[in-house]
Amino acid sequence: MRSMNGSRRNSGSSLVSSSSASSNLSHLEEDTWILWGRIVNEWDEWRKKKEKLLKELIRKGIPHHFRAIVWQLLCSATDMPVKNQYSELLKMSSPCEKLIRRDIARTYPEHEFFKGQDSLGQEVLFNVMKAYSLVDREVGYCQGSAFIVGLLLMQMPEEEAFCVFVRLMQEYRLRELFKPSMAELGLCIYQFEYMLQEQLPELNIHFRSQSFLTSMYASSWFLTLFLTTFPLPVATRVFDIFMYEGLEIVFRVGMALLQFNQAELVQLDMEGMSQYFQKVIPHQFDSCPDKLILRAFQVKYNPKKMKRLEKEYAAIKNKEMEEQIEIKRLRTENRLLKQRIETLEKESAALADRLIQGQVTRAQEAEENYIIKRELAVVKQRCTSATENLQRAQTTIRQLQDQQGNPRFSEEFVTHLETELEQSRLRESETLGALKEMQDKVLDMEKRNSLLPDEDNVVRLQEELQALALREAEAVKSLTELQQQVKDLSDSWQAGRGQIQRTVLGQAEQTCAGLREQLRLAAAQSKGLQAQLSESHRKHAEAQCKREEGMIQGQLNHSDAAQYIRQLKDHIDELKAEIRLLRGPLAFGAVGLGTRLGDEDSLGSSDEELPPFALTHGDIGDLRDLGDMGDSSDSETEGAPTAP
To answer: In whole angstroms, what is the distance from residue 305 CA to residue 193 CA?
Structure first.
């Protein structure tokens, strides 16, 4: 590998400085070689005591044979500890390998050393970039850095190139340029814009009018140190100065290019200027790099202003950072608010749905509530009725409990029984009244029939009266049975009262059922009594029919006897004298006739002498209709004309 690197160094140096190589070196070149050889050998002394002269010599260009050692000396990369780690780093795996492989083919694609997919240049370039991505994982890999490493590999072996690149990244602000944030690049662009505005205001105005931003043409200058802008001989001269003076040379060369091309640039539009920067400017100083370097150092560059601009830019960036933080916070809040809004919208939609559903539910509940209220009203009414019934039942129970010493039926039941008893008594009184009327009529008929003189007729009437008495006895018997039934009803009522008294406590419902059963029995008994009474009326009607038949027959007999009576009146008149004379005991018929004939004086005490003929209370009832018939016969007799 050492031999390969050495051959590559020789070939690379010959390629870079091929324009200056010659078979016969001039005397000046020999002096330059001798001078740089002395500088390398006496580097510490030159760096400390002859710094100004060393600067001038570097600006004029480092001989290509000394570039490798001088660059290492300028950046103090000769004895770095990381050089010993290089071989170990190559054995490791880097997350940036794919990116490195992709960009290697685009690094110096026309250079012989890097041409070809499997060329030695691409392989060693991959190794150095991979090793640095492992050393500085924050930076990792950046595309522009490959051009710087490629230039180093053209001058020195890969281990030395790796050490020089690490030093450049650490000490020459390149690390800040290649960080993912590229904060240093922003500072460089800001400083360069200030220089452009101060030194080339007309061109600056033109750039602004065309919206041709500084970053559009100057970013590659700072990232690749003009390695992608100029050909290698010119770019190498710029890189020599960069190794000693840093990024200041980039500002100077950039401003020199703009000053040199200001007249042409102000005539072009944005697209024209872009093409001009890509095709014209890179080759303007191919033949005379010294002219470019001379113009670059004629540019006004004030380090103090650059420091001040750096502070201004830091303040601006801090403010922007704060604003960015605020913006980020606001964006975060905005995002959270949007999420919250979305959530609230969903919740609002859900609440709207719930509200609608709630309204529907409330309507249904209102309807159900109305139905329940109606049912509740019915239930309350039933409950009120039940409560009233319960209160009445409780009152009845309390009354029944209070009536243990003096029990009695409920008012309604007692009233009903009293009504039944009154009706029975009324029917009894009506029957007694009818019997009394019949008795009165029988007595009247007896009085009237006593006037009849015919003994046979009287005997017959007596027989009829006896039959009537028998029927009256039967009626009295029926009445007695009716009275007995009424008495039984009263006894059953009293027994019912006693039964209620015995079962009233704790058996109110059974008592009521018993009372209802007793009432049913009493009603049945009453119906039986009514049937018996109807039978009695039927018998009375039959007796009345018989009496009517007898009375009709009697009337016929009376009509037959009327003539006989008229005939006897004269005989009666004749016998009056004899009766007064005789004054003897008179027969029952004679007395009746005397009384009937109006001999009130002589017969005044005849009533006292009448044989007793007592009628019972039942006989009077049976003779009710017969008395009516007697009255009618008497009236007919009285109304009939008397015989002379």
So the answer is: 13
pLDDT interval class at 529 (50, 70, 90): low
Q: How many whole angstroms separate alpha carbon 283 and alpha carbon 229?
A: 9
- In the numeric block, the tokens 């970039």 are attached to 129
Lowest mean pLDDT among 109-118, 231-240, 514-523: 514-523
pLDDT digits (tens, 9 = 90+) for 570-581: 767 777 766 667
Picking from 98, 144, 107, the residue whose alpha carbon sits closest to that of residue 125 is 107
Angle between helices 183-199 and 201-209 (to 10 degrees): 120
Closest alpha carbon to 81 in 1, 189, 177, 167: 167
Residue 66 has pLDDT above 80, yes or no: yes
Distance, CA of 328 to CA of 337 (rounded, Å): 13
562 pLDDT above the threshold of 70: no
d(CA 70, CA 78) in angstroms, rounded, equals 10
CA distances to 400, 433, 434, 487 from 430, rounded to whole Å, are 37, 5, 6, 17
**Which tokens go with 592?**
């009746």
SS3 of 60, please?
helix
The amino acid present at 287, given as its one-letter code, is S
State whether residue 642 is helix, strand or coil. Answer: coil
Residues 221, 204: Cα–Cα separation, whole Å: 18
State the SS3 of 414-436: HHHHHHHHHHHHHHHHHHHHHHH
Judged on CB neighbours under 10 Å (0-12, 13-18, 19+), 220 is middle
Entry field: residues in the chain:
644
Nearest to 623, CA basis, from 500, 515, 474? 474
- Residue of 12, 156, 149, 133 lying closest to 73 (CA atoms): 156
Of residues 131 and 379, more confidence is placed in 131
**Does position 10 have pLDDT exceeding 70, yes or no?**
no
Are 66 and 46 contacting, i.e. CB atoms less than 8 angstroms apart?
no
136: region left, alpha or beta (phi > 0 left; psi from -120 to 50 alpha): beta
623: nearest Cα among 437, 458, 476: 437
Pick the closest to residue 562 from 633, 634, 630, 640 (CA basis): 640
Secondary structure of residue 25 in the 3-state scheme: coil
Per-residue confidence band for 216, with pLDDT thresholds at 50, 70 and 90:
very high
Token output for 554 = 């009697």
Structure tokens belonging to residue 83: 């050089």
CA dihedral 586, 587, 588, 591 (to 10 degrees): -30
CB 439 within 8 Å of CB 624: yes
User: Which of the four pLDDT bands, split at 50, 70 and 90, describes residue 181?
Assistant: confident
- By the 8 A CB rule, do 407 and 497 touch? yes
C-alpha dihedral (213, 216, 222, 226), degrees to nearest 10: -130
Q: Which of 120-124, 164-168, 423-427 has the lowest mean pLDDT?
A: 423-427
Burial class (CB in 10 A: 0-12, 13-18, 19+), 620: buried
For residue range 611-626, what is the model confidence (pLDDT) as tens digits?
333 333 444 344 344 3
- Torsional class of 61: left (φ above 0), alpha (ψ -120 to 50), beta (otherwise): left
Contact 71, 164 (CB under 8 A): yes
Average pLDDT score, the chain: 75
158-170: pLDDT as tens digits: 999 999 999 999 8
